[in-house]
Design brief:
The complex is a heterodimer of chains A (about 600) and B (about 325).
Chain A (H helix, E strand, L loop, with lengths): L10 E6 L4 E6 L2 H7 L2 H12 L13 E4 L14 E6 L6 E6 L3 H7 L4 E5 L6 E6 L2 E6 L8 H11 L5 E4 L2 H4 L7 E3 L3 E3 L4 H7 L2 E7 L9 H17 L1 H10 L4 H7 L16 H4 L1 H8 E4 L11 E4 L4 E3 L3 H7 L8 H14 L3 H16 L5 H11 L8 H13 L2 H6 L3 H7 L8 E2 L2 E2 L9 H9 L12 H4 L15 H18 L11 H12 L5 H21 L11 H5 L14 H12 L9 H6 L4
Helix pairs in contact in A: 2-21, 2-23, 7-22, 12-14, 13-16, 14-18, 19-21, 19-25, 21-23, 21-25, 22-23
Chain B lengths: L15 H9 L3 H5 L2 E4 L7 H14 L3 E4 L7 H5 L5 E6 L8 H19 L6 E6 L2 H6 L1 H14 L4 E5 L7 H12 L5 E3 L11 H11 L4 E5 L5 H11 L11 E5 L2 H11 L3 H7 L17 H12 L4 H5 L4
Parallel strand pairs in B: 1-2, 1-8, 2-3, 3-4, 4-5, 5-6, 6-7, 7-8
The chains are: A alpha+beta (about 600), B alpha/beta (about 325).
Chain lengths: ~600, ~325
């Protein structure tokens, strides 16, 4: 007897690009109950099917596109999807969540999950329209940017289809390459675009008319109404994000003295006003362009006198802005457009440029490299060079000149030239715009994140900086290990159901569980949901342990750990990191080396 | 006088274990029953009233609290539910004379009952005392409270004492006055005073009025952590945890409800990380206070063992 009453079609499409074959498989119910969907299901599949130490850009790696039980049910922010693969940038499990409408379109084909295996002999794209699956020649698209590719495929297939594709960056297997959908939405972090490029897979086109089944429709509708009330009224989702988008954070984080500037050498950017949400809105905002069915509507179209496009988001404004010492918002916008069009991660790219600026200023590059840079930008590379961020982002996209080196990411770049301490990353993934020296809980979540230095897997900033759901002491270490775990476990389920992280500003674990449970038609409360999140987090940890990661990788750059800020409101605070990490392992039920204890694995049914 | 005030420490010294136990005994549903959903802005219009009524009835709040002018709409929105109407009287300054206050109360009650058509017992009146008169003549305050209670014709009256404008000694005194009146609740603030609900003041009010009168905390309550501290201060015993004996006035009911859901997970961690003493201490909030109260507050801060927090104002 079926336990699950809705949320899934229960079908997985497996495509093998080696021989252009595909088949539909039934997804066991237990997998759906234990791992929900999206990131959780993708992580489980990858853990089970990928051998240890598989080459991320080789034929063994799998690229998994996964929807969740909420996809297609018309609840706020649930148009998203997850992509999972082994990351070529970090060597860890890689995964991203992206908005737009691709998620709904994938679900509407009648498949919950698409698993792509092997390597095609020629560039190709996968086209799934309803239940009709085709693998088509994409030779004519190879070399085109993400916007050109999307336009061509919309015209060639279905004008309303969801399209996820790579640009030249992914084709060149750059380690910071992204998968872009609906032109400007990115599965950005960890180089999954390179995995797609390595498979010679230019795009995935999805469209269909299948409606996601749900449990008791009346109960589901009531639960959706509650979501709408809460998401529609919470201060951050109702006012701040709608009015200013994510750039609203610039002033807040800078005010706290934790806005990493000049490659994390300072915590305050004096020209932050030039980059603020208010400035952004006044000068470049055109209109909101929300993801499908999203009432928050943080995404926005923008234009400069020369170009138009979408974004940038807060992180991009920071990475190409404060981190590079650049105060020219227009140039940052152009760099962002380059990232979207060539298809690579804005956070990693901006961070890597900042790293290069510091190396250049400190004379860490040998003369031939300096010469190449002069050839590329016409001068030496220094912090504050707005023109350089535009030119270098273009060169990354084209994989030319010094851009080729930048496409490696900051860790490999700094390592290559003998100064790994200049790269601001965790496990190879560049850090985001929240300096842990000012947010001590974030230090833990960034250091222990399964995909590396990313804020989106446990957004403690919500409480440490934005007082949501409560204001807490951002320099306090008590309680932070437990809260890091709480946020990690919950965010894991949000990525698995699949919804937007921003709903966590308005909802709580019980409200998530209520909707997921009613859609699936099973009993579920907040504790059940968090336990599932813990299971998923742990299996990702097991994946990373199998790949050779350990406690030594759960750390932060030396600069962040040992050099307190000398000015601003986070001045002088030092993170007591080892104590935090010990406590974190303890609350997770892991041993002192960060390995889950047998009892914990049994508790989570992972033995 | 101020120099001899006891240097009693504020809420931060409350037992962490008891606070955690209290939180564990609460649910979003339980805390919702204490909420007076409030909007007292000048530009409040019908769509907002509709929303507030929808929230209150959907989630089960105690009342919807608005200006008296809304008595021509609100009763119809709440008719057939258990949610009460709450009207503020002489808000926010309390500077009308007693007769005018009473006339306003009588008029509001009459209008509401006519429209709702469900008889007595569906109205709260939150009256503001004349703080200036109280400081010179406490008996005047007793007289005005009882006059409003008479005008209320049996409906519940809550007395707003504007604690941010009172010294601690005055707060004790006014609480005694309210306790001796025919009112049903004492309430700290209009939400528009120098500061909002401080656990310390709520604790004093409960201490003085005893366990048979209601205490309502209002001002700046927008999350469950704040709400729970106030409940700890004003209704620590289970017998006090009813809408008849404790209320929270808030314009942010939804964030309280949803954050209560967060607080129930990892309760200990939230409370451990959430201790920022100055933010919950009335003596920290000196910016808008009268000189003599500001000076008294500063003296408290100088002797406070948590003064380091005040030094680093950006927590």
């Amino acid at each position: 007897m079926k336990a699950i009453k809705g949320g899934y079609f229960g079908r997985l499409l497996r495509v093998n690009l080696d021989d252009f074959t595909f088949n539909s498989e039934e997804i066991p119910e237990k997998l759906l109950i234990d791992f929900i969907g999206g990131r959780g299901l993708g992580s489980k599949i990858l853990f089970d099917e990928l051998p240890a130490n598989a080459e991320p850009l080789g034929p063994e790696n799998k690229l998994i596109f996964a929807t969740g039980p909420l996809t297609g049910i018309n609840a706020p922010t649930t148009s998203r999807f997850a992509v999972v693969a082994k990351s070529p940038l970090t060597g860890t499990i890689g995964g991203c969540s992206s908005g737009g409408h691709f998620g709904i379109d994938l679900k509407s084909t009648g498949y919950d999950v698409l698993v792509v295996e092997g390597i095609a002999k020629i560039p190709c794209y996968i086209c799934i329209i309803d239940n009709n699956v085709e693998i088509r020649d994409a030779s004519g698209l190879w070399g085109k940017n993400t916007h050109e590719t999307t336009d061509a495929l919309l015209s060639e297939t279905d004008s309303k289809a969801g399209i996820a594709c790579i640009g030249p960056s992914g084709e060149n297997e750059q380690l910071i390459a992204a998968i872009m959908n609906e032109k400007n939405h990115a599965a950005g972090r960890g180089g999954l675009g390179a995995v797609m490029g390595s498979k010679k897979l230019k795009a995935v086109v999805v469209s269909g008319n299948n409606k996601t089944p749900v449990g008791d429709k009346d109960i589901v509708d009531r639960a959706i109404k509650q979501w709408r009330i809460f998401v529609g009224e919470a201060p951050l989702t109702k006012d701040v994000l709608k009015e200013y988008g994510t750039p609203a954070l610039v002033n807040t984080i800078n005010h706290d003295g934790s806005f990493p500037s000049y490659n994390f050498q300072e915590g305050v950017f004096n020209d932050a006003e030039s980059l603020s949400g208010e400035t952004f809105k006044e000068l470049y905002f055109v209109k909101r362009q929300p993801c499908a069915g999203c009432p928050i509507a943080c995404a926005r179209l923008t234009a400069t006198p020369e170009r138009e496009g979408k974004g940038p988001e807060f992180e991009t404004i920071w990475s190409f802005g404060a981190s590079c010492g650049v105060n020219d918002l227009e140039k940052i916008i152009h760099a962002n457009y380059n990232c979207n069009e060539y298809g690579f991660d804005t956070i990693s790219a901006g961070n890597t440029v900042a790293c290069a600026m510091e190396m250049s200023e400190k004379g860490y590059f040998p003369e031939p490299v300096m010469q190449q840079i002069r050839e590329d930008i016409g001068r030496d590379l220094k912090f504050g060079d707005a023109g350089a961020i535009v030119k270098l982002s273009e060169l990354i996209g084209k994989n030319e000149g010094f851009g080729k080196e930048l496409g490696l990411g900051s860790s490999r770049l700094a390592e290559k030239y003998g100064h790994p301490e200049v790269a601001m990353h965790v496990k190879g993934l560049e850090l985001p715009a929240y300096d842990p020296r000012g947010f001590h809980g974030m230090s833990l979540t960034l250091a222990t994140n399964n995909r590396g230095g990313c804020h989106l897997r446990s957004y403690l900033v919500s409480t440490e900086a934005l007082s949501t759901p409560f204001p807490i002491n951002r320099f306090e270490k008590k309680g932070k290990a437990g809260l890091a775990k709480l946020y990690q476990d919950l965010t894991t389920t949000i990525d698995s159901m699949v919804a937007c992280l921003f709903t966590s500003f308005a909802l709580n674990p019980d409200l998530y569980a209520k909707l997921v449970g009613t859609v699936m038609g099973i009993e579920m409360d907040g504790n059940d949901l968090l336990k599932t999140g813990e299971r998923i987090w742990t299996i990702e940890r097991l994946f990373n342990l199998r790949e050779g990661k350990s406690r030594k990788d759960d750390t932060l750059p030396d600069r962040v750990l040992n050099q307190p800020f000398t000015s601003g409101l986070s001045k002088g605070y030092k993170i007591e990191f080892d104590e935090l990490l010990d406590e974190y392992y303890h609350v997770r039920g892991w041993n002192n080396e960060g390995v889950p204890e047998k009892e914990k694995l049994e508790e989570l049914d992972l033995v | 006088m101020a120099k001899t005030e006891p240097n009693r420490t504020p809420l931060v010294e409350f037992s962490a274990d008891k606070m955690k136990e209290l939180v564990r005994n609460f649910t979003p549903e339980k805390i919702t029953a204490f909420l007076d959903v409030t909007d007292l802005n000048a530009d409040t219009q019908s769509p907002k009233l509709n929303k507030m009524a929808d929230w209150a009835t959907t989630f089960g709040c105690a009342s919807v609290c608005v200006n008296p002018v809304e008595a021509d709409k609100l009763p119809a929105l709440l008719k057939g539910t258990n949610v009460k109407e709450c009207y503020v009287i002489d808000f926010p300054l309390g500077k009308m004379d007693i007769e005018m206050k009473a006339v306003l109360a009588t008029h509001t009650v009459k209008k509401s009952r006519e429209l709702r058509g469900e008889g007595k017992g569906f109205i709260d009146l939150d009256m503001v005392i004349n703080v200036g008169r109280f400081k010179k003549d406490p008996e005047y305050t007793l007289e005005e409270i009882n006059a409003i209670c008479d005008a209320a014709d049996g409906e519940h009256v809550k007395v707003i004492v504007r604690s941010a404008e009172l010294t601690e000694k005055e707060l004790y005194k006014v609480s005694e006055i309210v306790a001796s009146s025919r009112a049903h609740f004492i309430k700290n603030s209009t939400g528009m005073d120098g500061y909002g609900a401080m656990p310390d003041h709520i604790r004093i009010m409960r201490e003085v009025v005893g366990n048979s009168m209601g205490v309502k905390a209002a001002g700046g309550i927008s999350d469950a952590m704040t709400a729970m501290r106030l409940i700890y201060a004003g209704a620590p015993e289970e017998s006090l945890q009813t809408p008849e004996l404790f209320r929270l006035g808030t314009s942010k009911p939804l964030t309280i409800i949803t954050s209560m859901g967060w607080l129930r997970h990892n309760t200990d961690d939230w409370l451990d990380a959430g201790i920022i003493p100055c933010t919950i201490c009335p003596f920290h909030h000196t910016g808008k206070l009268r000189v003599e109260i500001r000076e008294a507050s500063n003296r408290r801060c100088q002797n406070c063992k948590f003064k380091e927090y005040r030094k680093h104002k950006e927590f």
